[in-house]
Amino acid sequence: MTGPGTTRAREWLATAVAEARAGLAEGGVPIGAALYGADGTLLGRGHNRRVQDGDPSLHAETAAFRAAGRQRSYRGTTMVTTLSPCWYCSGLVRQFGISRVVIGEAETFHGGHDWLAEHGVEIMLLDAAECVALMREFIARSPELWHEDIGEDIGDIGQDIGEG
Length: 164
Hints:
Blueprint: H1 6-25, E1 32-36, E2 42-47, H2 50-53, H3 60-68, E3 78-83, H4 87-96, E4 100-105, H5 113-118, E5 122-125, H6 129-141, H7 143-149, H8 157-160
Parallel strand pairs: 3-4, 4-5
Antiparallel strand pairs: 1-2, 1-3
Helix pairs in contact: 6-7
């Protein structure tokens, strides 16, 4: 199984970053995603809308998946996301057999991508400075919202930002 090369993956990541910025502009969590077909066609794109829609299940990967609509098969598809996918979104990738995940960064949050790799999903981690900066700025500005998004108690904040 071969995924996109690094150049193409970075081009696809630009779509996810644009979605993340749109989410931030709407007052939400700046995480974006896009689902690409085996032939490189953009099937769907979206961003985290938990805050905007009051829907705790509307993560970026979920939004992109929903926007793609029903597909006969997800084999050969690539989920591109600005941030390592949480367990919820990692489960979506596994459940529907998405073949690969391109990740902008896993420095600010290390989700389930190691587990996905252990189960045969191809992972490409780009370590994109733009994605890291976007999340660091957001976490510093909105720590309560960030911790709500990742399902952690507010009491854990000091430990995560080096104060405890």
